[in-house]
Amino acid sequence: MLSIGQNVLITGGAGFIGSHLMDAIKPLAAEIYILDNLSNGKLKNIRYYIENEELKFIRTSLHNEDEIIKALEKCEIVFHLAANPEIRTASVYPDIHYRQNIATTFNLLEAIRKVGHVKTLVFTSSSTVYGEAKKIPTPEDYAPLEPISIYGASKLASENMITAYAHTYGFNAIIHRLANIIGPRSQHGIIYDFIKKLRDNPEELEILGDGNQTKSYLYITDCIEAILLSCQKAIRRVEVFNVGSEDQINVTTIAQIVVKEMGLKEVKFKPTGGVDGGRGWRGDVKNMLLDVTKLKSLGWKPKLNSEKAVRQTIRDLRKEHRSE
Q: What is the pTM of this model?
């Protein structure tokens, strides 16, 4: 469903995953359009391409229908990555994920319906749609899907709208349920937070929750390879793929790795104890591991496990900080 020479639109293309996707797609696509309001994305992530006129950048939000339709005029495939990624935010302001995740996805789908020539929509969903799955590792056909966060619910709602629009209006859809994706250019998440906290206070590290939250972490290049391979080999009208590593790591271990990589000693860990049995926040899934058998059957396999991905990400982010 992804072939060389297509015109591509990436929503959220200046963001963490979006800019890495841009790097990988550039040699394949005829023309690339980036639509981003820079609320989470950074212009520096794609500045090289803008300065060399290798893409068309549209600074706007997915609430602007005219701009979306303009961006879609020549595009055959759309990668929809624009979203508010902060899971914790919605426990206080649930409307944020409705407006920035659900409503924006609807607006994009409506624009796709109106232009009528888009062949494929690729969507980055989340492992949070599974909620607290009773089956670990969790396969794509697990049911019932019961997200415990507003963020997870917004991603599941978007999945359902995309599925219905694809069947109703005749385009293909590929949905990727992502584990925790980490690597250079990331601006949020546990590793980013731990490094920031330790720069502010190298003697003490606050850990949200009880520190036993155990999840899968995947390095960004492995994620991008998975997305592009699935786009080439998907055959059904709507395909769903889990994208994650094959192992897990807990929060306390990540904290220990960050401390070691930063060359610190005698750092006092201060778990907050958390809520609802040790969660970092309401809606935090304590145990997550995706079954990636379906993706592996296509020939994909992650190069880095969770621990190696964490170590590499720490080095990436520290290098970025030194270069700023």
A: 0.96
